[in-house]
Amino acid sequence: MVAVATVAHALDDKFVEGRHGMTGKRIDLLAFTPFRLNRLAAEFSGALLADYQHFGIDVPGWRVLSTLGIYDEPQSATKVVRSTRTHKTRISRAVAHMVELGLVEREGRDRREIMLRLTGRGRKTYEELVPLMLAREERLMSCLSPTQRSALEGILATLETSLGLVHGIEPA
């Protein structure tokens, strides 16, 4: 039993030591993939914020608006939470704010499932924001060649699939 534990420990040490950005039992945070992805996401989010903040929308609000914007029919708040991987409390607050702004309306079938839809004003705001967001994305991604962009899209899709995340438009 001790021999198995020793071999497992030795393999664990070898794995950790052999991994980019890691030495022994220490992690070089700047080379640690989850941190790098999070840091990039924060930078991209911050760059996009300048565009939608003009409309009185914050990050969770943009997530609500953009999730609802791709559908013509009402969607559940649960779907927004699942699609964006944002905590339900943050989405709930964002929805309340978006309702105050007149961008989203609630349709309650019952207390367990609240359906959300963009108002006319919300749809207009979404349609104004989409070209801004796409142009910002283009500027942010302009440092990549078409081949690199394609590879990145494939890698992201693989990671999303392996984690069971929604990617792309889901059927209503």
What does this structure look like?
The chain is built from 7 helices and 5 strands. With 172 residues, the protein is mainly α. The chain folds into 2 domains: 1-31; 35-141, Winged helix-like DNA-binding domain superfamily/Winged helix DNA-binding domain (Arc Repressor Mutant, subunit A), CATH 1.10.10.10. The strands form 2 sheets. A 3-stranded antiparallel beta sheet has the order 3-5-4. Strands 1-2 form a two-stranded antiparallel ribbon. Helix 2 (33-53) packs across helix 6. Mean pLDDT is 85; it is low at 1-17.
List its salient traits.
172 residues, mainly alpha, 2 domains, three-stranded antiparallel beta sheet, 11% strand, globular, disordered N terminus
Structure described in brief:
With 172 residues, this protein is mostly helical. It has helices spanning 2-18, 33-53, 59-69, 77-84, 88-100, 120-141, 146-162; strands at 22-23, 26-27, 75-76, 104-110, 113-118.
State the order of secondary-structure elements, H for helix, E for strand: HEEHHEHHEEHH
Q: Could you list the spans in which at least 5 consecutive residues all have pLDDT below 50?
A: 1-17
User: What spatial form do the alpha-carbon principal axes imply?
Assistant: globular
Percentage of residues in DSSP E strands: 5-15%
Q: How much helicity do the residues have?
A: 55-70%
- What count of domains describes the coordinates? 2
Rg to the nearest angstrom? 21 Å
Q: Order of strands side by side in the largest beta sheet? A: 3-5-4
CATH homologous superfamily (4th level) name of the largest domain: Winged helix-like DNA-binding domain superfamily/Winged helix DNA-binding domain
What's the architecture of the largest domain, going by CATH?
Answer: Orthogonal Bundle
By CATH, the topology of the largest domain is Arc Repressor Mutant, subunit A
Query: How is the biggest beta sheet arranged?
Result: 3 strands, antiparallel
Mean pLDDT: 85
**What is the SS-derived class?**
mainly alpha
For the termini, the CA-CA separation is: 53 Å
